[in-house]
């Protein structure tokens, strides 16, 4: 309550504060309603949304007329009285269970409305952490993640996380406070042109212009984030709009007109693609993040297995196809497996689903799948032929189009010889590493030991760098939504807040016994280590594994390979002792540098019910291979530095 | 091969705290498998636009001029969204005009771009993804197009200026002892020719609007306008029918 001391010219503050206090006694009502919705296993959020306003409307009609606003609230109904309450009502109607954010002046009215809400708010240490946590929450739950921040620095601190969500097509709603409308443009205290700053990194952003419509706007932004190709949206909320009075109950959340995409691809195009697949000799599936976002992993697996087509994935597509399947070649690209890159180089029919052909996947475009007819399934027409020309574009939802293809392909391709070739490549280019006795602990060993110690449903989050690549290479992923990482933007520091979001998403789904493991580098860990305080405060069961080589390791690797070994600003002469730092945060901490201690410490950390940190002192000279140098040919991946 | 013991002339003195990591991996392990030069490599290639090169027709798409028309919701910031998209995706744009349409609250944006076919395709698709964009399309070559130019020339020879203005169906907007300002409209080529003709007087300033265009005849330019019937005012009563003469505000 002390935060309400902020001086303000707005008379409404008193009302808002008063009503929030009054609502304290009624807090259980909405919570119960939410529990009911959540426990009905298949109760859709639509049901919840439809019920709540109906109840509200009835009560409001009966009691608001009597002029007894307090009475209405005492009855536990949700007719908003302010723009801010309308914002929260929209979130509730959309089915948002958890939101991540940081308080601040211009967003205070919204936080005040959260006081009596069923939405669980997690206070993060930094707004960047809020955006990443919401992003990862959305990745794991399949729903739109929600983050909040105040104006100015709050909003700009969200920017990295919003850009990250944009690059990885993650559904994210950011709500930012803004200075009162009449001050906008005057360089007021904590004013930033948030709309201008975030326009290039959002699907769309909204400047809330009216108290009566702000709830509808928030509902639309929430729905739009997950409509079609997912992505981040933002609503900028001037303080006068959130403080202003309204009696408007927001409409059920709906995407803007025309945003819905036809899930089915054009049948003729599907038929043509089916013929190409049937006649191919070296067919290859390339499953991207879109497969997971569409919930199409089942269809993808059936399609590949029914027709005996080998499968590679992109990095965001990890988990769409089980990596222990005989058809699986794991992921392709810069640090992908040798066999995936061989297959992608030699395929004559590439069935690419939900991928945007990022340059880290394709390497030099001239040598990417150079002999393949490309069948490209994507929900976003703008991705068709953007980077790689699609001979057969199939625009639609990944799952729906894969079903169409399943029905259209009669006799699968005769690919026996090709499958054998792919199997040979797996033998020829195995993902192995050496563990000489005179060398320090190998990071790959740590990743494998964690994989061994956890179930198939364990969730892995990472920062960005060498550790991320090892976590992707040496863990065998079998399920979608278990790999949570920063791909397109490559955001160091993603791992810790992402683990917070991932843990809460699993817990909300009742999956409290799933393990959440965050692999981080020492450099990456230090960028967002403050979010460890959130994991402790919220008592989140997360194991943080720092693969500590006292380097910005990926940069060091590139300096060795391309800058003649000059370690400019990549080498840390000193690093904090992360195990002790963890203890200072109130988490459990270990430091491990010997192979003997790895398994036992992992077991102890996983068994510990709360956040724990293991500082693995790994071999600082270890490099990530295979590697396709930037712009190089996938088929010419290097297996060691001398091959670069 | 740059093993740890090899002399590397450009490498600075590592100093006492510096760990030498270079080449360690190559020396010690590396990953098993044939080296890049020992692997089979396909003959095929793609061009820089990602199109598989057919040896028979090995051609990249060359840039060409295209006129793109879009109907947009006239909401705050729409112009900055469109121009921001064009600039951050590095599309080559020659001109952009904006003005009201038959529908209240809708504007038409006309863009002339210089791009290859895949680039033009991308511009249309990326524009279509913007929420305030209602419809977007490329105009055919036979579209009617016009732009407006204001030319301020030296007023030393008013009769000759007047004659050339007449020749190009222009209007004199302002004539003073030292300067004459004329207005000309027409397609780009006519405007270019007119400017050439006026150069003899000494052109002081030029303001050109850039092209705006509609498709010819019955063909709809892009879907979204509300055609009126004779005698009925359109819902947007202002439109001058000329190029963008309405002040366009874009906060």
Automatic annotation (TrEMBL), chain A:
Pathway: Amino-acid biosynthesis; L-isoleucine biosynthesis; L-isoleucine from 2-oxobutanoate: step 1/4; Amino-acid biosynthesis; L-valine biosynthesis; L-valine from pyruvate: step 1/4. GO terms for cellular component: acetolactate synthase complex. Residues 463-616 form the Thiamine pyrophosphate enzyme TPP-binding domain. Residues 14-24 have a biased composition (Acidic residues). Its cofactor is thiamine diphosphate; Mg(2+). InterPro entries: Acetolactate_synth_lsu (IPR012846), AHAS_TPP (IPR039368), DHS-like_NAD/FAD-binding_dom (IPR029035), THDP-binding (IPR029061), Thiamin_PyroP_enz_cen_dom (IPR012000), Thiamin_PyroP_enz_TPP-bd_dom (IPR012001), TPP_enz (IPR045229), TPP_enzyme_TPP-bd (IPR011766). Binds 1 thiamine pyrophosphate per subunit. Binds 1 Mg(2+) ion per subunit. Residues 31-43, 50-65 have a biased composition (Low complexity). Residues 270-405 form the Thiamine pyrophosphate enzyme central domain. Its EC number is 2.2.1.6. It catalyses: 2 pyruvate + H(+) = (2S)-2-acetolactate + CO2. Pfam families: TPP_enzyme_C, TPP_enzyme_M, TPP_enzyme_N. Residues 1-81, 229-270 are annotated as: Disordered. The keyword Ion transport does not apply. Residues 1-13 have a biased composition (Basic and acidic residues). GO terms for molecular function: acetolactate synthase activity; flavin adenine dinucleotide binding; magnesium ion binding; thiamine pyrophosphate binding. Residues 82-194 form the Thiamine pyrophosphate enzyme N-terminal TPP-binding domain. Keywords: Amino-acid biosynthesis, Branched-chain amino acid biosynthesis, Magnesium, Metal-binding, Thiamine pyrophosphate, Transferase. Coiled coil: none annotated. One of its GO terms (biological process) is L-valine biosynthetic process. NCBIfam families: acolac_lg. Belongs to the TPP enzyme family. This is Acetolactate synthase. It comes from Halopenitus persicus.
Automatic annotation (TrEMBL), chain B:
GO terms for molecular function: acetolactate synthase activity; acetolactate synthase regulator activity. It comes from the Archaea. Keywords: Amino-acid biosynthesis, Branched-chain amino acid biosynthesis. Residues 1-64, 212-251 are annotated as: Disordered. One of its GO terms (biological process) is L-valine biosynthetic process. InterPro entries: Acetalactate_synth_ssu, Acetolactate_synth/TF_NikR_C, Acetolactate_synth_ssu_C, ACT-like_dom_sf, ACT_dom, AHAS_ACT, AHAS_small-like_ACT. Residues 212-222, 231-251 have a biased composition (Polar residues). Pathway: Amino-acid biosynthesis; L-valine biosynthesis; L-valine from pyruvate: step 1/4; Amino-acid biosynthesis; L-isoleucine biosynthesis; L-isoleucine from 2-oxobutanoate: step 1/4. GO terms for cellular component: cytosol. Residues 67-144 form the ACT domain. Residues 16-27, 36-46 have a biased composition (Basic and acidic residues). Belongs to the acetolactate synthase small subunit family. This is Acetolactate synthase, small subunit. It comes from Halopenitus persicus.
């Amino acid at each position: 309550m002390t935060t309400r001391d902020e001086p303000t010219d707005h008379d409404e503050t008193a009302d808002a504060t008063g009503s929030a206090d009054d609502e304290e006694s009624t807090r259980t009502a909405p919570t119960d309603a939410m529990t009911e919705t959540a426990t009905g296993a298949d109760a859709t959020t639509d049901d919840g949304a439809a019920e709540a306003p109906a109840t509200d409307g009835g009560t409001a009609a009966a009691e608001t007329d009597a002029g007894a606003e307090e009475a209405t609230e005492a009855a536990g109904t949700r007719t908003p009285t302010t723009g801010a309450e309308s914002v929260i009502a929209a979130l509730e109607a959309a089915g948002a269970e958890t939101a991540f954010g940081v308080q601040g002046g211009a967003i205070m009215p919204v936080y005040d409305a959260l006081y009596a809400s069923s939405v669980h708010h997690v206070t993060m240490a930094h707004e960047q952490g809020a955006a990443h946590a919401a992003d990862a929450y959305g990745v794991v739950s399949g729903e739109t993640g929600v983050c909040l921040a105040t104006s100015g620095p709050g909003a700009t601190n969200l920017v990295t996380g919003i850009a990250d969500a944009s690059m990885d097509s993650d559904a994210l709603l950011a709500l930012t406070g803004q200075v009162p409308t009449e001050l906008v443009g005057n360089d007021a205290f904590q004013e930033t042109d948030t709309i201008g700053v975030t326009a290039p990194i959002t699907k769309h952003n909204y400047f809330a212009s009216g108290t009566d419509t702000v709830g509808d706007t928030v509902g639309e932004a929430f729905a739009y984030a997950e409509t079609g190709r997912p992505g981040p949206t933002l609503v900028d909320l001037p303080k006068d709009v959130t403080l202003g009075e309204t009696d408007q109950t927001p409409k059920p959340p709906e995407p803007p007109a025309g945003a819905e995409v036809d899930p089915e691809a054009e049948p003729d195009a599907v038929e043509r693609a089916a013929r190409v697949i049937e006649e191919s000799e070296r067919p290859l599936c390339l499953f991207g993040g879109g497969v997971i976002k569409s919930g199409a992993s089942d269809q993808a697996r059936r399609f590949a297995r029914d027709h005996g087509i080998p499968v590679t994935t992109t990095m965001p597509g990890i988990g769409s196809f089980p990596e222990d399947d005989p058809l699986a070649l794991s992921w392709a690209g810069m640090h992908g497996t040798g066999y995936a890159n061989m297959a992608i180089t030699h395929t004559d029919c590439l069935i690419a689903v939900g991928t945007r052909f990022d340059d880290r996947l394709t390497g030099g475009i001239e040598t990417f799948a150079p002999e393949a007819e490309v069948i490209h399934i994507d929900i976003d027409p703008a991705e068709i032929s953007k980077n790689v020309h699609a001979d057969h574009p199939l625009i639609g939802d990944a799952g729906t189009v894969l079903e169409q293809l399943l029905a259209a392909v009669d006799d699968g391709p005769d690919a026996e010889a090709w499958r054998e070739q792919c199997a040979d490549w797996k033998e020829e280019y195995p993902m192995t590493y050496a563990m000489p006795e005179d060398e320090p602990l190998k990071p790959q060993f740590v990743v494998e030991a964690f994989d061994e110690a956890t179930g198939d449903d364990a969730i892995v989050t990472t920062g960005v760098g060498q550790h991320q690549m090892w976590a992707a290479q040496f863990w065998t992923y079998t399920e979608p939504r278990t790999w949570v990482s920063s791909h397109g933007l490559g955001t160091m520091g993603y791992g810790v807040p992402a683990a917070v979001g991932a843990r809460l998403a699993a817990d909300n789904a009742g999956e409290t016994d799933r393990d959440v493991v965050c692999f981080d580098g020492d450099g990456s860990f230090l960028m967002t280590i403050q979010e460890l305080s959130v994991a402790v405060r919220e008592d989140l069961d997360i194991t943080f594994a720092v693969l500590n080589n006292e380097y910005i390791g990926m940069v060091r690797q590139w300096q060795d390979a391309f800058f003649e070994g000059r370690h400019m600003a990549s080498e840390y002469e000193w690093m904090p002792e992360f195990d002790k730092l963890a203890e200072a945060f109130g988490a459990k901490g270990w430091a491990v540098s010997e192979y003997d201690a790895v398994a036992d410490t992992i077991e102890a950390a996983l068994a510990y019910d709360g956040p724990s940190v293991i500082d693995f002192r790994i071999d600082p000279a270890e490099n990530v291979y295979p590697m396709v140098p930037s712009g190089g040919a996938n088929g010419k991946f290097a297996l060691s530095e001398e091959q670069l | 091969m740059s093993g740890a013991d090899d002399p590397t002339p450009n490498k600075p003195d590592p100093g006492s705290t510096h760990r030498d990591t270079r080449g360690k991996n190559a020396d010690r392990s590396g990953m098993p498998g044939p080296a890049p030069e020992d692997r089979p490599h396909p003959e095929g290639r793609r061009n820089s636009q990602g199109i598989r090169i057919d040896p028979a027709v090995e051609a990249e798409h060359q840039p060409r001029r295209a006129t793109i028309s879009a109907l947009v919701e006239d909401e705050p910031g729409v112009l900055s969204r469109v121009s921001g998209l064009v600039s951050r995706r590095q599309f080559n744009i020659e001109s952009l005009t904006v003005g009201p349409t038959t529908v209240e609250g809708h504007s038409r944006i006309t863009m002339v771009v210089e791009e290859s076919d895949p680039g033009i395709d991308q511009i249309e698709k990326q524009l279509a993804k913007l929420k305030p964009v209602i419809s977007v399309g490329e105009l055919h070559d036979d579209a009617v197009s016009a732009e407006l130019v204001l030319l301020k020339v030296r007023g030393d020879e008013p009769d000759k200026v007047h004659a050339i203005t007449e020749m190009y169906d222009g209007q004199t907007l302002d004539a003073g002892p030292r300067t004459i300002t004329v207005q000309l409209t027409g397609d780009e080529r006519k405007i270019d020719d007119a400017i050439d003709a006026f150069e003899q007087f000494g052109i002081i300033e030029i303001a050109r609007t850039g092209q705006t265009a509609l498709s010819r005849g019955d063909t709809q330019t892009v879907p979204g306008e509300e055609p009126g019937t004779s005698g009925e005012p359109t819902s947007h009563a202002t439109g001058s029918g000329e190029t963008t003469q309405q002040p366009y505000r874009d906060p």
